[in-house]
């Protein structure tokens, strides 16, 4: 399907979703054929503005821990962000980039499985299916509940939310939980689901040791006065982020690169997303 036709299709699906009372919906799946029922649902929630190689590493490292068709990945676009106002690219273009990203991710999984297995390409039938979904809910605890309530997946189903360290800090910030402004509402999330958190070491977020200490403090009970329970720490799995010296990758950098230094897209976004950004210019002011 041409990008023009795909954009029109997503525009119509989005319009129906926004006008509905639904809080979560899967718009498409890759591949579209039926697949075995999910046993673990990995959820990568992002503004996908655009999807980057950091998002690809977050998802692929989680899926590669147990590469099996009963693992499923949900790429979840939040139409409402907890903090940021909406800005270009359009949601339609982001959904197209999410679909391209899903193909890039499956290609990546198929080829990287080769180096760890017998030297043969990993059959695509063994790769996890990827859903492209939308939610109106900005907070993780509500996203998890909306996914459960929609009835799209078998129940009960453990969700593993894939985030970066900056997002973990925000999930555990009481300012998001009125009217009491304490962390108690998160108990629903941590009693059923998990977080797999990629460290994001830099000047703003500190060293890997500082990031590990944040979870260790929760485990020691240091957040109990704010309603944070020690046992939640067991449901938070911190994994390494970029290695020292590796340049930091972010959607902001990719948006800047497409305007100024387009060759930098090669190390910021996966191939199909890069080609789309170059040909369709979703961040151009004329769009
Ligand atoms: N380089 C990275 N290292 C670790 N986590 C990351 C990285 N990039 C994104 N993430 C995580 O991926 C999730 C979605 O990210 P998000 O859409 O905010 O991307 P971003 O690159 O931080 O965006 P922006 O630059 O537009 O603020 C968040 O949980 C975020 O922490
Ligand atoms: N307390 C929370 O659950 C919480 C706080 C801040 C951001 N978020 C969400 O995290 C995701 C990533 O946010 P940013 O795009 O702002 O990095 C968004 O879906 C945003 O709404 C959730």
From TrEMBL:
Q: Which reaction does it catalyse?
A: beta-nicotinamide D-ribonucleotide + ATP + H(+) = diphosphate + NAD(+)
- Gene Ontology molecular function, alphabetical: ATP binding; ATP hydrolysis activity; nicotinamide-nucleotide adenylyltransferase activity
Keyword NAD in annotation: yes
All residue ranges annotated as the Cytidyltransferase-like domain in the record: 45-106
Q: Which GO terms describe its biological process?
A: NAD+ biosynthetic process
Question: Which CDD domains does the entry link to?
Answer: NMNAT (cd02165)
Q: Single GO cellular component annotation?
A: nucleus
Q: In which pathway does it act?
A: Cofactor biosynthesis; NAD(+) biosynthesis
Q: Which UniProt keywords apply?
A: ATP-binding, NAD, Nucleotide-binding, Nucleotidyltransferase, Pyridine nucleotide biosynthesis, Transferase
PANTHER family, per the entry: NICOTINAMIDE MONONUCLEOTIDE ADENYLYLTRANSFERASE
> This protein is called what?
Cytidylyltransferase
Per the UniProt record, the source organism is Penicillium alfredii
For this protein's source organism, the top of the classification is:
Eukaryota, Fungi, Dikarya, Ascomycota, Pezizomycotina
